[in-house]
Amino acid sequence: MPDSSERYGFVVVSNRLPVDRVIAEDGSASWQHSPGGLVTALEPVMQANDGAWVGWAGQPDLEFEPFVDQGISIVPVPLSAEEVQRYYEGFSNDTLWPLYHDVIAAPTYHRVWWEAYVQVNQRFADRAAEITEEGGTIWVQDYQLQLVPKMLREIRPDVTIGFFNHIPFPPLGIFSQLPWRKQILEGLLGADVIGFQRADDASNFSRAVRHLLGHATTRPYIEVPVDDESAPVSRRGKKVRRVLAKHFPISIDAASYEELAARPDIQARAREIREGLGNPKTVMLGVDRLDYTKGIRHRMKAFGELLADGRLSVEDATLVQVASPSRERVETYKLLRDEIELTVGRVNGDYATMSHTAISYHHHGYPREEMVALYLAADIMLVTALRDGMNLVAKEYVAVRRDNDGVLVLSEFAGAADELKSAMLINPHDIGGMKNTIMRAIEMPKRDRTTRMRALRRRVLDNDVAKWSASFLQALENVRPGQQITPAP
Ligand code: GDG
């Protein structure tokens, strides 16, 4: 166990720690790894760097000493039940999340939520500042902690600060709704490097900074005015600090997915899944957290209409939908679950037979082995997000398809669409277009499937999560405070 005065050269800060506390039936407590995009992405980096991870353990009022889990020092930030409700469920998941995802659901603005957000961000910043060694590097993750970079810089000007936004950054017209828009921008600008998923996110951010704060930007840099006499002088004659705001598309640990996909027991499980579904000609799959951004209803509507039109029958095609439970205490998510389950019930009620179901719906989380078996069992992967920072599911599906088969239907509103151009790209709002694309995917000749999947695989295997973190950390190393500003030509 690390003692509480231990210092680390590399510290990751995120809302959630990469562990869950589980209580067994006999009442004993233990720690378990938790799934999710961020954990999947950062675990290998942390293990390789012997780093510390600062975050919340997922339960209110849980205080414990730091401990080491799979080579990562786990450093807790406790939250009270009221803070969880205001900072996390409220401001993070009911204000920022819908605002940053194109207001698909209406964001709620509450001043007490904002106050809790400020207070909790300060606690994360203080904890990270306490455990980071002189001249160390701190990498802050995601929208729950956008004020942390500025707070850190105020306490620890010696450290290098990175921030990565896993979700989209909205266009100015939408971002401007936020009553605390300036504070958020200033909070982020405390970082040396601000990473986004897509180039569009980075330009949305720079535009917001120009319009709302009036700072000069020369892509990909932002010039933040500072008081520091030793700071370099900008073209406008001001002392400035230069912040890099750029896209670093996140990825997956592709090799580990390939390994799982090569395992005979997992391949056998994939066959068993198909048999369990009554061996339809085509198995289609959706895997998402149960979230309104993921377009689950749009996908079900398209599939239901294909059955209604008689273009598909349940012997031809089954849709397997894994909707892992998410944010169940937030009202919008409760309503969404009801709507989705109503749709599943209707479609199955209308079209399922005694031997074939239409939508095989699972409101569960599964072990990764089972997810890989599902990917292998699926002829068509449906990623129909209305807005998504990246979408790792799309990349995971591609990584496991060592057979170069399978078709990825991918929303152009997912960050992954910028890279995975050989997928069948769709606009999920266009239900007619989505139906036609699904039919084209079902009917696609093997040769075309192989050509597309080969290209997709090359992209994902060559750009894995190790490359993502290496390029972000390289950028951090390059942009230290006090660097000269290169004059524009
Ligand atoms: C955010 C951004 C961005 C899901 N259900 C189970 C399970 N999962 C895993 C998937 C995948 C991950 O969770 C989900 O990642 P996504 O990228 O699809 O989506 P978000 O959770 O919304 O993640 C997103 C990401 O951050 C990373 O930056 O791409 O845009 O919204 O890895 O496989 N894993 C297991 N059982 C499940 O039931 N084991």
Automatic annotation (TrEMBL):
The EC number(s) this enzyme carries: 2.4.1.15
Biological processes, Gene Ontology terms: trehalose biosynthetic process
GO cellular component, one term: cytosol
GO molecular function: alpha,alpha-trehalose-phosphate synthase (UDP-forming) activity; trehalose-phosphatase activity
CDD domains: GT20_TPS
InterPro entries: Glyco_trans_20 (IPR001830)
Keywords for the protein's UniProt record, in alphabetical order: Glycosyltransferase, Transferase
Enzyme class per UniProt: transferase
Family membership: Belongs to the glycosyltransferase 20 family.
Stated name of the protein: Trehalose 6-phosphate synthase
Organism of provenance: Frigoribacterium faeni
